[in-house]
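Appendix B. Extra example for self-study. Work through it before the problem class; the solution is given directly after the inputs so you can check yourself.
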Amino acid sequence: MLTPKLQTLHRTVNRLFRRNAVQPLTNLLQKSHVADLGFLLPHFSETEQLGLVAHLKDEERRAQVLAEADKDVASRLLGVMPPEQAVELLQHMEPDDASDLLQLMDEEAAESLLQLMREGRDVVEELSQYDQETAGGIMSPRFFSLLGDTTAGEAIEELQRVHDDLEMVFYVYVVSELEQLLGVLSLRQLVTTKRDTKLIDLMTSDVVSVTPDVDQEEVAKIASRYGLLAVPVVDEANKLIGIITVDDVIDVLREEATEDILRMAGAGDDLAESDGLFRSMALRARWLFVVALGGAACAALLATYAVRIDAFIPVVFLVPLVLGLSGMIGLQGTTVVMQRLLQGRLGLKLASHVLRQGVAGMLLGVVFGLICAFLYWIWIANSGTPGSLDPLVASAALGLAVCGAMAISAMIGAVLPIVFSRVGIDPALSAGPLGTIVVDLLAMLAFLAIGSFWL
Amino acid sequence: MLTPKLQTLHRTVNRLFRRNAVQPLTNLLQKSHVADLGFLLPHFSETEQLGLVAHLKDEERRAQVLAEADKDVASRLLGVMPPEQAVELLQHMEPDDASDLLQLMDEEAAESLLQLMREGRDVVEELSQYDQETAGGIMSPRFFSLLGDTTAGEAIEELQRVHDDLEMVFYVYVVSELEQLLGVLSLRQLVTTKRDTKLIDLMTSDVVSVTPDVDQEEVAKIASRYGLLAVPVVDEANKLIGIITVDDVIDVLREEATEDILRMAGAGDDLAESDGLFRSMALRARWLFVVALGGAACAALLATYAVRIDAFIPVVFLVPLVLGLSGMIGLQGTTVVMQRLLQGRLGLKLASHVLRQGVAGMLLGVVFGLICAFLYWIWIANSGTPGSLDPLVASAALGLAVCGAMAISAMIGAVLPIVFSRVGIDPALSAGPLGTIVVDLLAMLAFLAIGSFWL
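Solution. Structure tokens for the complete assembly:
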């Protein structure tokens, strides 16, 4: 899934590596965007990755490429390069990136690298105390804050003085002598006002801020709802301790979308390879076990009804078909309602949405019930009537059973996310294995009950 | 899923409405953030929605709340309010928001509102010509551009002159006399340089830009990869025609995540209600039909093998169990590989990933095969041996069949997204109904083949 531009870059770098053409390689790497190089890094072998990093112009650029690369790959590279070099790179990174990479390395290696760090060690250590998925874990401790009685002119001079480390300056935070957050103003406000205006008269004091323990998903929601380019993080005493910039917010949104999809498949919620084969197997086994229980319940249901139904054998062959149709229509209702719920878009019309799903399920149930009845009728007409039943009655019973199972599934599927969120289970799980089993069992029960009643 | 703060706001507004307390309501609405009001809007009934909008201070604020609200709700409100009022609101909105809302209304109503617009009509009409899901559909035609020989000082003065319409100014775009995009500089660069520096000497000429036909997902990827706060849009002649700001990028990312999840459930890719019950039914019926075909194939498979297997009845009861386990493990492999593929994170290790999924599937297959064999053994030991088989042999055969079906499913599941993307099908579909059926059928085949070979 590389863009043509990245494919060309990848091929060219590969070719220059093979030819050992140092100068052209250095030139090419110098001309390329660090984001592109970081993105491509995992597409090379480890030796090539080390070579690529070594051919970059300076520590600054090396650190940038590593910070842009996949975190698993970057932390592994830091582990295999000479410690002095790894430390040099960590010191040139944003502290939050450095802290993330160190947390992915094994503890001993991370500790020894930390010991070697001459500058920024305190900051990195402070950051590592926060959970990686909270505001504290993704914030950067580098922000631009000034006292309230600073004038706009002084602020601009100050901005000229601070070196380029603060690359993402959009807002100026106004703080008290105790570094408590008082207000905020945009760079644009600063520029377009008179030079002797005091910041305190210019700022908005209605600042949206978060504490470091707030979940990163919540931070992303706040930033996106209020259209903020950076969310300030304050401690209990309202002291400004960091900011979360919009690029981190975007990363969070991408991560969370992946998490939701993996959760739906009962495949854990993390793509990290460092977790190891057995941990990921254990995560999956949990859900497979739930599925197995559901399957065993289905088998018991089938065995119970088997005694009663005369024409059972051909009906039992249709079980995968019925489960497939009900599962699908249930999942469709679940995902639609779940997504609306997660976006807070259900509002007043909760009941109407669920009803809508039920109606759609019933109508589709009629369509597919007819199709199934027709196919079944052809089948038994050809292979002989099962038991002593009239083929038409048997087909009609089957069609009705399919229709009933689908209608029930659609309704249950639509209600599930709401029930899940009311009892405090993550609604994303309703579209996952747990929801599937509930729908499957109820559909099976409806199918067998309706079918055996008629036959 | 409302935050406590929003819940309180919702309740208070409701209470003030019931009491018809106009002044307190107006005060409360004035104090609240437009983003909060917009978010809450769909949670009120239509009459209340109209009342809420009417109680807002001015047109500016009304337009902002409507622009922040759910697009379906906002466009419906515009349709029910008096046309003069709707036009007034549209004129106070960002042109891209106005264009979006008009596109959601029915064509006649939208056309008559457009005719009534005195200002901004050209811009809105121009924007409506682009597909809503492309760069042209989400761009804003309001940006800050200046000629290259402008000095930094003049640029700052110009910035003070332009009124507040350009709320999201982060970059100054440098253009030629023909409005062609030459380069870009940040507001910070502008502020921290000498006032007589010319923009052309200050700008970066290596600008990432897109054409209006680029897919919005691609725009979001570019913005997030290069950490851009705004992506400029240029036409074929490199003339700057709009910018896409980071808040729109965030909206796109959220939309696309929803789309992927809905697609996985074969539920279309849109939550829009305006699509109507029948259109959404038709979308779903397509996938249900595919599922039905798969189910019919399963039934045929079962019927074919039924003749051969002596102990068939109890084995057939286990079909839902086997399908559940194989489907789950296949989906787990599919989603993991699919997500890595979509993130471009597969790199060199394609084969190793697929292999890993296969190994995990085999090992989990052994575990669950043993569990199934054990349960089956208890069952037939209690209810009598089926046919003339030794219970131990029958159980072992079943366990082996489960293990084989799961191993095959895990492998196929992991390969599917890669095959799909190679033949040009959206890999997200591999985790959807299409992938499920392929996995189900192959698992069924493996299960029956292994089972019947032994029995």
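Self-check: Chain A touches chain B through 109 residues (CB under 8 Å). If your reasoning did not lead you there, revisit section 3.
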